[in-house]
């Protein structure tokens, strides 16, 4: 749903980097290079970004 503020495995703060990552990937930038430029080196943090699906807009439709 929403990107976690910290990596669930190592505890590194990563939530503030999500918007920068998303915007660059939408411009068809290579995700590997984007993650490298943002300083995300650990595999646990990288997998958090690569596998995250932003569903907040879809879930918001079912609000009462």
Describe this structure in words.
- With about 60 residues, the protein is an all-alpha fold.
- The chain has one domain (about 15-60): Arc Repressor Mutant, subunit A (Orthogonal Bundle), CATH 1.10.10.60.
- Helix content is about 50%, strand content about 0%.
- It has four helices and no strands.
- The protein has helices at about 20-25, 30-40, 45-50, 55-60.
- Helix 1 runs antiparallel to helix 2.
- The chain is globular.
Task: Produce a short descriptive summary.
The chain has helices at residues 18-26, 31-38, 43-51, 56-60. With 64 residues, it is mostly helical.
Order of helices and strands: HHHH
Tally the structural domains. Answer: 1
Q: Assign the CATH class.
A: Mainly Alpha
Q: The CATH topology is what?
A: Arc Repressor Mutant, subunit A
Write the layout of secondary structure elements.
Layout lengths: L17 H9 L4 H8 L4 H9 L4 H5 L4
List keywords for this structure.
single chain; 64 residues; mainly alpha; Arc Repressor Mutant, subunit A; 0% strand
